[in-house]
Design goal:
Radius of gyration: 14 Å
Helix content: under 10%
Shape: flat
Number of strands: 4
Largest sheet: 4 strands, antiparallel
Number of helices: 0
Strand content: 35-45%
Order of helices and strands: EEEE
């Protein structure tokens, strides 16, 4: 049975370079749980122009404040 719980789901991003050290992460989809054979279902709302996808554990927006702040002009780096 497929699980769509946001607690176990993953978000799909593309990282768009804005020149120099600047970049933005754009969430373009969602990975839905694990199927009985270990595969995943991925739903994309957009396609990345650069052809690159980044899959990360989903983090509720209210938890974003708990992350260390990044310096101005640097790309977000998940630890």
């Amino acid at each position: 049975m497929e699980s769509t719980s946001k607690k176990t789901g993953k978000a799909v991003y593309t990282i768009v370079s804005k020149g120099g050290d600047k970049s933005i992460w754009v969430r373009i989809g969602w990975v839905h749980g694990t199927n009985h054979d270990g595969s995943y279902n991925i739903t994309l709302d957009a396609l990345p122009v650069n052809g690159k996808l980044q899959v990360r554990d989903w983090e509720p927006r209210e938890d974003w404040g708990a992350r260390p702040r990044r310096e101005e002009g640097t790309a977000f780096s998940a630890s």
